[in-house]
Each structure stands twice: as C-alpha cells, then as structure tokens.
Amino acid sequence: MPSHGAPAQTSPATDYQITTSSSTYTPGGSITVTITALNGKVFVGYLMVAKDEGTGADLGSFSIISGGKVMCGTTRDQGVTHTNKASKTTESFTWTAPSNANGNIKFEATIVQSYSKYWLNVHSDVVTLASAVVTTKPTTTVPDTTKPATTTSVATDKNTVSTTVLSSKPMTTPSTTTTSTTTTQPPATGAVTMDHRCGDTRGCFVNCEGNDCQYVVSWHYRPEYVDFSITRKVTGGGSKWLAIGFSSDPKMGDDDVLHCLSDSAGHVTVARSYNQGTSNQPIANSQEGISSVIGSYNDGVFRCSFRYSQVRPDPDNRVKRQGTSRPMIDLHQHRHLMLGDGPAFGDILAMHKENPLVTAEMVNLQSTDIIGDVARYPLVKVHGCLMILAWIFCTGVGLVFARFYKPVWSNRTILGLKVWFQFHRGLMVTTLVLTLVGFIIIFVEANGYSKISAPIGKGYVASHPILGIIVTVLTVTNPIMALFRPGPKDKNRPIFNWAHWAVGMAAHILGVITICFGVELQKVGAPKYTVYVVIGYIVYHVLMEITLKIYDLFAERQNSARIEHMEMKNGNGATQNGNSFRPEEPKRDPKDSIIKKLLLAFHVAIAFAFTLTLLLLVTQY
C-alpha cells in the first residue's frame, strides 16, 4: 500500500496487464515477466512479487532486463520496483523459481499511474508447475542465507511504493543460467550500463553510447550527506584504485579526493586523500565522514558506492593544506569533478595510466543533470597545431629545397640570394619561431616540466616531453651553427655541411616522432586513427625523397653520357678545320627541369594536405 494519502482504485486495472513468457515453470528454471500499460496509458511506479497460489508466500528471485531494480524480502531479490518517476509503458524482468518449488504461482503487483491513482493486487494468469523434467540442471548462485533478513521501516518519497519487509542494505542479483528455451539472460558480466536514475533522482557524469558505458559516476544529494556510486571499465589485475576528485579548476593540484581501493582479494575500502601538485597524498583523518561502503572489482569492471556525510567547514578553524589532516570536503560548493584510476601498492595510489577525466564545467551536486562533456585543453591543441605546421609542412618542404633544389633556378635570385636558399631559410626560420612559441605555450599549460600519463599499452608515449625538449634544443642549435658557417673555400666547410645536415635531419625525424606520440595523448582529444595519418606522412615523405634522389641520379647519368658522346664524336678536343675544338657546355643544369618543378609543386600540395588534415583532426574533436 503506497503511503500517498489516497485510497487505492476499486475499479479493475483494465489498462495494465502482467504477462509471462510461459504458462508453466520448472523448479530452478526462469521465465520472463512483463508489466505493460494498455490503451495509451502509462505508469510511474510499481512493486511486484511472485506468490505461491496456495500459501501466499513470496517465491523465487528476480533479475533486471529493462529498467527497475530488485529489492529484498525474506530472501534476496524477491521483489522488483521502479527506480524513477518517469512515465513508462513496459518493463520486463527475469524470474527464477526456487529449486524446491512445488505449486502454482502468480505474479502480483501494485501499479501507480499517478501520485493519487494506483491499483493494488494486479496479477498475472496462474503459472503452473510443469510436469516435464528439465534434463539440464541450471547453475544458480545461491544467496547467503546465513545472515538473518532485516525487517525495517522504509521512508519513501511520494513516488515510491512502500513495503514493510526490506533489507536495509543493497543486494546483488544472483546470476542464473539454464537451458530452458524461455530463459532470458541477465546483463552480461563486465558491462557498464547507464544508471536509470540519472536525470531523475541522481546527477551523473557519464560516457555512454546507448546503454553501453565506459564509466558512470552518479550522486544523490541530501543536505546532510551525498550518496556516490562509481562504475568504470578498467584493465589489468592486482590491486586497483578508482577515485573522484573535487577541483576548483580542470587541472590537478590541491584537490580533495575520495578514492576506492580494491586489494588483490577484491575487498574494497574507501578513504579520503588529496592531490598535491600531480601526486596523491594520504591524510590522517582519511575515514572521516565515509560510510555504507559497497564495492567490487571483477570482469574488468570496478564498482564502488558509498555515503559521504558533509559538514560545512568552519572558515575560522581550517587545517592547513600541507598538514597531515584536512577539513571535511564541502560538497555544497560547485567544483570540477575528476575521475581517475590506476594501480595500487598497499595503501599507496600509484600514478594513473591515463589522465583523469574532468568535467568541462563546475558541477552543482544538488542538481540531477547528466554531464557527458569533459574538459578541453585549448593550449594543448594550440601547441599541437604549431608543431604540426612547423614539422610536417615547413620542415618537410624546407629540407627538400636544401637537398634537391640547389641546381633549380640556378640563374635566378631573390633579394640577391639563390632561390633555394631563400625558401629554405624562410621555412626553417618559421619552424624555429613556431617551435619556440609552442614550447613556451605547453610549459605555461603544464606549469613547467611535467610527466604525462601514457595510455595503457603505450608507455612509449610518456617520452613525448623529453623528445620535445630535445627537438627544441636541436632547432635552436642549427641556426646558431649557421652564424659560424665557414666560407665556401674554407677547409672546414665540409665538416660544417655534414654537421648542419645531421642536426637538421635529427630534429626533423625526432620532431615527427614526437608528433606521432603527441596525437595519442588524451588531452589532445584527437581520434585514435590520427596517428596513422602521421605514419602515412612519414611513408610519403620517405618515398618522395627516394623519388627525387633517383631522378637526380638519372639526370646526372644522362648528362655524363651526353658529354662523353660529344667528346668522342669531335675527337676529344682535336682540331677541326684547323681550329681547336672544345665540347659545348650544357646551357643549364640537367636537374633544372620542368619535371623537377612539377615534383616540387606536387610535394608542397601533399605536405599541405597532410598538414591541413592533422590540424582538423586535432582541433575539431
């Protein structure tokens, strides 16, 4: 009987029906039970049990198929009820009969259409005990019956159907497997699904596609406490931690943390800690305010729920942040939520393998909003764009000018200097400027040098900061070397040429590798396939340099053959009509050809296409 202050309807509940997938059942077997609204009606609440037709006792156990939640009677999961007050037209469940069942049963429910309009004793047709014998015995996870059931009075809100026999602790759904053709399996283990209370009675921070989620953080606010539930897919074995942090900005540093810790045996505890810079620090009063802890870590899913009792901090009695204890977390404040996980060693939380996820905006825990957006890092994206422009386009084209285009336009100059040199110098100076600006920007973003979290299985990505520093040093070194370049006839000029080439090539190779690692960083937010675009550019650039080298070798060979032919035909310098003869010099370098210029135009276009593609991938996601 709902405590809604209104009597139950006395008319038949013709707009609602309870149906079963089979008119018979077998002991230990399962059938599907569905509550359906008819004639365009809806329902907002319900409570349903299975009753022995003879004794009236509640029988069997339920598991969820679509919506609702199980609740406890004299044994586990003997009833199902709603999780929110949203309008519904149908919800289904799997009911599993007890192994010793021996009578007919029917399903009976209270169905609530609105707060003041509800029906009692809405029931299904009788489901009879099948005479056939099931040849394959189902495997059932037997509930722990060593602990007595708890009889308690449950306080309910205006949309909750009340009952007088409930457990005061949440229970898990027993898993049942059978070969009966009428069985509907419960949700697969290892899955994270959307909390149906999100947006109704709970606020949530989620990443879901349909009902398949990577993580779900939900909270239920009360002035005296907040109930938290955290579920996330994680990888690896051993001890793990899963935590939520409360931060005044989207970056780590001086953040309050509530972390769940699972030991190697799967036992879960919850404690408080705080972030000092990018490292987590324990506190003395770590258990203060925490209660009602339930958690598990299995099948690649870490689940943790707990209650945190909040008390407004006394501004005149604050504990210093650097101390071993901290004031209670003030959950009345609006702050960014952080979600992270990683390995644990005893009570020590090791560094996370991926950067924590952070809400884009500050969160009001008193709201029931569903938050799906995470923080963006615009300075990280600007840094990435500058480096792509510098090392994919400017350097990719500038080095080609220096290596292959010195003989082209050999008779022309720009401001008194060779064409190739002006283009080469202009592109490499641009590379220097872009690299230095990008270097400064990322140091501002990271507040100095900072280690980064590498995605799982990609530890090499953690070398990105070191490689970036090396590339920057090489980039600055080369123009300084150029200031001390020896003259064309100086005996040390060959040494300079080789050193200048080696430093430039090393910077280009490491620069592109650093970009390859960088696009895989979580803060960049680029699609996973972006790294393959960078690899595609590397393959293309190598092939283009090989093509240009082959063309130059071919042109040199053709030129040598032509000169040799002219010398042999004219007597290798002999007199002709009494005059001394010398073979005619070629009018221009054979490498200065229309084909070479077309190859350059092609290379510039392709390098620009790769650059533009990478810029769009980094900025648009």
From TrEMBL:
Q: Give me the segments passing through the membrane.
A: 386-405, 426-444, 464-484, 496-517, 529-548, 598-618
Q: Which residues form the Cytochrome b561 domain?
A: 346-554
Q: How does it sit in the membrane?
A: Multi-pass membrane protein
Amino acid composition bias (Low complexity), ranges on this chain? 167-189
Q: Which InterPro entries match?
A: Cyt_b561/ferric_Rdtase_TM, DOMON_domain, Ferric-chelate_Red/DefProt, Reeler_dom, Reeler_sf
Reelin domain boundaries: 1-148
Check the record and name the PROSITE patterns matching this protein.
Answer: CYTOCHROME_B561, DOMON, REELIN
Q: Name one Pfam family in it.
A: Reeler
Principal localisation: membrane
Keywords annotated in UniProt = Antibiotic, Antimicrobial, Electron transport, Glycoprotein, Immunity, Innate immunity, Iron, Membrane, Secreted, Signal, Transmembrane, Transmembrane helix, Transport
- Annotated region Disordered: where? 162-190, 567-588
Q: Which cofactor does it need?
A: heme b
Tell me the first and last residues of the signal peptide: none
Q: Which GO terms describe its biological process?
A: defense response to bacterium; innate immune response
Q: Where in the cell is it found?
A: Membrane; Secreted
Q: Which GO terms describe its cellular component?
A: extracellular region; membrane
Domain named DOMON is located at: 213-342
The record's listing under PANTHER family reads: CELL WALL INTEGRITY AND STRESS RESPONSE COMPONENT 4-LIKE-RELATED, CYTOCHROME B561/FERRIC REDUCTASE TRANSMEMBRANE
The similarity annotation says: Belongs to the FRRS1 family.
Q: What name does UniProt use for this protein?
A: Ferric-chelate reductase 1
Source species, please?
Magallana gigas
